[in-house]
Design goal:
Two copies of one chain form a homodimer. With about 180 residues, the first copy, chain A, is α+β, with helices and mostly antiparallel strands. In chain A, about 30% of the residues lie in helices and about 35% in strands. The longest helix of chain A is centred in the middle third of the chain and has 16 residues.
């Protein structure tokens, strides 16, 4: 799988699964009727942030947006968002994007990464983040109107990037140590 | 003290203390070098949100911005931000704006109010919110680069608007019960 910076022309490959994920209504707070133009402007971020895509056999199967969680005096904490084509779920796309994102944020000099709104019923995402060293700082009660489950919590998840613990997935993937 | 919706022309009264507060660097994550135009566009919000000003003896001494904390499936939780002219601190401006904000959000149909980034050393604000029924859900460690104190935490604070407990300040202010 290749993770690379997104180019403007990639949007036409991202938008179909972005729209599908938002329409399903189980993971994101984008407006249900969001237009391609509004979604593009939100997702295809610019410096100091970055948007990347995951390519598998020449097909774009996911995307991530990374950047500062706040401006100014809060800009040393990163945040990120992820979209994986539902047709490619279970193929490690989310994990590959997540690991890239953590490496990018650490290398870029961010001190930590924070997710502001992880839907509590999105157990795949929650367990992925936990396996990558994130903890749930808090759960905002009933903050997400889930299309199937009604009002459910939104987790705020956090991971320091200052330490460099071995990620669980790294040992299981038997990577070559990077130093 | 009069709390009323802000008009476009009010920005020239808000900007001097907005800029001063951001420059002091102890409470907000706006960029230090933010321009008036960028600050105006962020602060003077439109429907479904609202920006209000506090007037005392004909002078604008504070402002608040209220609206949905998230879009779409998260839009039933409100958030708000507050600026009080440093020359008018200790005169109850923040409390008056806070009480208006809670009333507005409840009346407008929001289920809760959430603050995403209350600087932990801003004890005046933290104690005001606590006195108005907010709790600290979590503190993101070292998430704010305080101009004087260095890295300090950012509180995520929360209050349900579904119950209608008597606010501590209401009893002390001996208001006429509203129902």
């Amino acid at each position: 799988m290749l993770i690379r910076p997104a180019e403007a022309a990639d949007w036409e490959s991202i938008w179909p699964f972005f729209r599908e994920i938002v329409t399903i209504g189980e993971t994101y707070c984008y407006p249900d009727q969001i237009t391609s133009e509004s979604a593009r402007s939100s997702w295809m971020t610019e410096a100091p942030g970055i948007t990347v895509v995951a390519e598998l056999e020449g097909r774009i199967v996911g995307s991530a947006r990374i950047g500062p969680n706040r401006d100014g005096r809060g800009a040393h904490v990163a945040t990120a968002a992820f979209m994986v084509d539902p047709r490619s779920q279970g193929e490690g796309v989310g994990r590959a994007l997540a690991e890239f994102t953590l490496d990018w944020a650490r290398t870029t000099g961010y001190r930590a990464m924070q997710f502001n709104a992880v839907v509590a019923t999105n157990i795949g995402a929650v367990s992925l983040w936990k396996s990558l060293g994130f903890e749930i700082l808090a759960t905002v009660p009933e903050a997400f109107d889930h299309a199937a489950d009604g009002l459910v919590g939104l987790h705020i998840m956090y991971r320091s990037l200052l330490d460099r613990p071995i990620l669980r997935s790294e040992s299981s993937m038997r990577r070559v140590p990077r130093g």
